[in-house]
Amino acid sequence: IFIWGSCEQSTPKFPAKKAITITNIDDTENINWDTLQKLSSTPETALLDSMAQDFIKQWEIQGMTLGVVKDGKLVYAKGFGYAEKERNLKVHPHHLFRIASASKLVTAVAVMKLVEEKKLTLDSKVFGETGILKKYNHWIEDPILHKVTIRHLLTHTGGWRNYLRTDPMFVPVLVAQAMKVPSPIKFEETIHFMLSQKGHFEPGAFYDYSNFGYCLLGSVIEEISKISYEEFVRKHVLTPIGVERMRIGKNRYKERFAHEVRYYEAEGTPLNISIYNPSDSASRVYEGNNTEAL
After folding, report:
1. Which of these, 170, 152, 164, 163, lies nearest to 208 by C-alpha position?
2. 47, 68 Cβ separation under 8 angstroms
3. DSSP collapsed to 3 states, the chain
4. Alpha-carbon gap, residue 241 to 247, rounded angstroms
5. How far is CA 126 from its chain centroid?
6. How far is CA 273 from CA 59, 100, 203, 283, in A?
7. pLDDT of the chain along its 294 residues, tens only?
8. Taking CA atoms, which of 31, 87, 177, 252 is between 20 and 30 Å from 162?
9. Which residues is 66 bridged to in the sheet?
């Protein structure tokens, strides 16, 4: 899961409206966040402010940022609610948030970059004799997986099935126990688990949303590019469009990045098994899920 700099922009693009005292410049990014937020507080933006506040109230969330881009320019950027309620820290446009499955779009763009460079095609096989990840062929128990293509992974039609009857990325402790390996489990062991299953469906037969399939695309990117997934995305997708602060999120609260918000769950949300101590339980937003693997 990537963390997105909520209103990433090399320089603010607002027209000057009034004299504003500059009080908070982040020299590492050359962005004046205070000015940006104040220029978003005008009579013309009052409706957007109201809609954002209503959204927070309706869904009972702690905080959010909202940005509007028109004609390639950032014309509105503002924070609402709390970045960390315990410290009474309000959200501002510079705060970083996890973006969950929206990160799959980033992965898809990275794959299409490789397609543009003719390093693979949408119909390239993932496994089998000519497969990009043929190094894992010896784990395959069901030969139907030799039919899986890049297109199938992108469109959630890989036909994955396992005896846990759920996405393996959401039950990492159970997968680690099944494979008899320590938790947090390495993704390569999750691949081993999935390839050792029998009874997969025909690839392309139907849609079944798959986090595992997109994580597998990350392995495809690494195999083709010979560099890490994060390095490839940063170099070939993010940096060319001026995005400098996006990064892969961490599992633990203490490992959060500078300016990253604190995450909260809805009241009454059940705990998960801790990926660091399977005999204990943990919040789904910290240590109860392997965010770094997703």
Report:
1. 152
2. no
3. CEEEECCCCCCCCCCCCCCCCCCCEECCCCEEHHHHHHCCCCHHHHHHHHHHHHHHHHHCCCEEEEEEEECCEEEEEEEEEEEEHHHCEECCCCCEEECHHHHHHHHHHHHHHHHHCCCCCCCCECCCCCCCCHHHHHHCCCHHHHHCEHHHHHCCCCCCCCCCCCCHHHCHHHHHHHHCCCCCCCHHHHHHHHHCCCCCCCCCCCCCCCHHHHHHHHHHHHHHHCCCHHHHHHHHHHHHHCCCCCEECCCCHHHCCCCECCCCCCCCCCCEECCCCCCCEECCCCCCCCCCCC
4. 15
5. 22
6. 26, 20, 32, 8
7. 556 554 444 433 333 333 333 234 344 455 676 777 777 888 888 999 999 999 999 999 999 999 988 898 888 899 999 999 999 999 998 899 999 999 999 999 999 999 999 999 999 999 999 999 999 999 999 999 999 999 999 999 999 999 999 999 999 999 999 999 999 999 999 999 999 999 999 999 999 999 999 999 999 999 999 999 999 999 999 999 989 889 999 999 999 999 999 999 988 999 999 999 999 999 999 999 999 998
8. 252
9. 78
Q: Which two tokens stand for residue 204?
A: 């392309």
The amino acid that residue 119 corresponds to is: K
Residue type for position 55? F
